[in-house]
Amino acid sequence: MSKSYCFASWLIDGTGSPARKDALIRVEEGLVSSVEFPAPEELSRLRRDGPSGVALQSYPASTLLPGLIDCHVHLAMSGKTDQELRVRQLRSEFEQNAPLIQERIETCLGLGIMALRDGGDIGGHALRYARGNAHSPARVKCAGKGWRAPGRYGKIIGRVPEEGSTLAESIRADFPHVDHIKILNSGINSLTEFGKETAPQFGRDELAPAFRQAREHGRKIMVHANGRLPVVFAVDAGCDSIEHGFFMGEENLKKMADHQIFWVPTAVTMKALSAHAGQSGVASMILENQLEQMRRARRLGVPVASGTDAGSFGVRHGLALAEELALMVEAGFSVEETVRNATSVGARLLGLDHELGRIRPGMPANFLVVPGPPADFPRSLAFLSAVYLNGEIITPRAHNGACEI
Ligand SMILES: [Zn+2]
């Protein structure tokens, strides 16, 4: 029976509770079998003699935390800013896209990101890849293709309901194949007119029966929605998560806190646009506004999950998560709360809380080690020391060289 010990000077366990000093994690057969905080005398004995007959991996002056989760990605799309390359990839065949999808997943894993929730692509390539690679070490949940209204935003990730069919009737055919349903219920942010709201894509009478039916089939619903009314409709119809949620306003946040509806703010998308696009002024203002909403969400107790929208303009797979987490800290989340958002909250949203999100006895030993004290997080993610997947060390990726695709 394989056994090992892992020591780190600090542990953040993923629940949001304060980091603890000097943690000793015992791993047996890929599972965490105990989490202990030895007294100083016991610790020096262990350091001197080692645990009897068991391998000890020691990470002094380092912090150990659960494997990370990115709750919003588009694996079939490039996060580069080269528009020609982005369009070429969108139009490419599955056979050309599959190796890129694989590389993106491996990049994420090497950066300590162990689960991904895909929000769809026009070819349904991410879903097809995931179905063909069910034993991939990273957990990948896919929507396939999203759903949008005719003539509205979302051509590159969604399709419209069949002519003459309701949304509920149309999504029914998806249930056997997809992990969750993605609905597009607004446009995207205007980069010329700050705060311009678009109308909901679907009415309440279309969303409510569609969501009810998805729930009956055990499928969660992620809704792309910006602006007040598109979010009101999605929340009232009973969605599981609001994606982006720019300009949704306080009333929506309160309702989401009351019903514990998840929010995936993807603030990093606006950071990327403000760094690259010609309209950087408006993108920076939108980012500031989103950080203010995140501050309110924290105070109100909305479950905020980390998601990047990797694959959108300038949002790089894997790398963008550390940036999103830095924005959470900027919005007032403590380091422990930020880790919680990136681990146990995401695990609940993805239905993976039995295997990811926390470090506690009985759960798979899925965790990472970063140098320095908790206060150095998330900057310390750039210097990842180790990634443990089911108790085995996998090679971390160099942060700067990651994902050239
Ligand atoms: Zn998206």
Tell me the layout of helices and strands.
Elements: E1 3-11, E2 20-28, E3 31-36, H1 40-49, E4 55-66, E5 68-73, H2 83-91, H3 94-110, E6 113-118, H4 125-132, E7 139-142, E8 146-147, E9 158-159, H5 167-172, E10 180-184, H6 204-216, E11 220-225, H7 228-236, E12 241-244, H8 250-259, E13 262-264, H9 268-276, H10 280-300, H11 319-330, H12 335-342, H13 344-350, E14 367-371, E15 386-389, E16 392-394
Parallel strand pairs: 1-4, 5-6, 6-7, 8-9, 10-11, 11-12, 12-13
Antiparallel strand pairs: 1-2, 2-3, 4-14, 14-15, 15-16
Helix pairs in contact: 3-4, 8-10, 9-10, 12-13
Low-confidence stretches: none
**Percentage of β-strand residues:** 15-25%
CATH architecture of the largest domain: Alpha-Beta Barrel
Classify the helix fraction into a percent range: 25-40%
The distinct ligands, each listed once, are: zinc ion
The CATH topology of the largest domain is given as TIM Barrel
Largest sheet: 7 strands, mixed
* Number of structural units classed as domains: 2
- How would you sum up the global shape? globular
Structural class of the helices, strands and pairings?
alpha/beta
* Order of neighbouring strands in the sheet with most strands: 3-2-1-4-14-15-16
| CATH level 1 name of the largest domain | Alpha Beta
Mean pLDDT: 93
> Over the alpha carbons, how many angstroms does the gyration radius reach?
21 Å
Number of helices: 13
* Alpha-carbon distance between the two ends: 40 Å
Q: State the fourth-level CATH superfamily of the largest domain.
A: Metal-dependent hydrolases
- What is the string of SSEs from the N terminus onward? EEEHEEHHEHEEEHEHEHEHEHHHHHEEE
